[in-house]
Amino acid sequence: MLSDLLPPALVNLLLASLQQTVTMVAASAVLSTLIGLPLGILLVVTAPGQFLERPVFNKVLGTVVNLIRSTPFIILMVAIIPFTRLLAGTTVGTAAAIVPLTVAITPLYARLAEAAMREVDQSLIEAAESMGASPLQIIFKVLLPEALPGIVAGQTVTLVSLIGYSAMAGTVGGGGLGDLGIRFGYQRFMPEVMIAVVIVLVAIVQSVQMTGDLAARLVNHRIARSRRSR
Questions:
Q1: What's the rounded Cα separation, in Å, for the pair 194 and 123?
Q2: Are 128 and 137 in contact (CB under 8 A)?
Q3: Is 188 or 106 the better-scoring residue by pLDDT?
Q4: Mean pLDDT on 107-123
Q5: Residue 230 within a domain
Q6: How many structural domains is the chain composed of?
Q7: Would you say the C-alpha torsion 172, 175, 176, 181 has a positive or negative sign?
Q8: Mean of the pLDDT values across residues 97-126?
């Protein structure tokens, strides 16, 4: 289909840009999960009334998360240029784009994970406490397993958002499909390139959404079976 729409040279360029986008999204997704999930846990367990209640810490952490979330991605990319240069050694290209992508998406994932964990029945946590479970045991044996379907669904939302952010990163030298669409589709007046980029992005988003929905259902069914077997 793409070979009918574009000449071979542009098809190769499209594939290279797709690889850059996949690299950016995959690396940012892994990093945001490694950072965002612990942040989400902290937002839950340090909230008032929870087993590691720390109201001041919770308030400060929540404020920082909200400040980053409320900053438009394009502005955030420019604002943290010194930080990006410090970590990546440059401010352009795929490697450099991973830094602002991770910074931008981590608070979103943290909030989604927090929301999933807040849905866990409080009586389960209280029961674990009454049996002498430690905070770590409550987190890893009650909170995370029970919230897993919501966490997986949140990961899907995060990936879809990352794909959109990665396209925006291309407008300021981040590479990937967004960069290809801007340079050829917009600046060189080649609408067929823009159409091809949109088709590929839509296909990626649909694939991620379907896979994420399936994973969430499978996890949910597994947890339901585990509860029935108790």
A1: 53
A2: yes
A3: 106
A4: 93
A5: no
A6: 1
A7: positive
A8: 93
Does 51 reside within a domain?
yes
The C-alpha atoms of residue 54 and residue 48 are separated, in whole angstroms, by 7
User: Which structural domain, as residue segments, surrounds residue 141?
Assistant: 2-224
Say which CATH number the domain at 205 has. 1.10.3720.10
Question: Does residue 229 sit within a domain?
Answer: no
pLDDT digits (tens, 9 = 90+) for 47-79: 998 989 999 999 999 999 999 999 999 899 989
- Read off the tokens for 157: 């939302």
Crossing angle of helices 94-118 and 81-88, rounded to 10°: 110
Q: Which pLDDT belongs to residue 224?
A: 59
Contact between 131 and 29 (Cβ < 8 Å): no
The answer as to whether 70 is a domain residue is yes
pLDDT digits (tens, 9 = 90+) for 157-209: 999 999 989 888 876 677 888 888 888 877 777 788 888 888 899 999 999 99
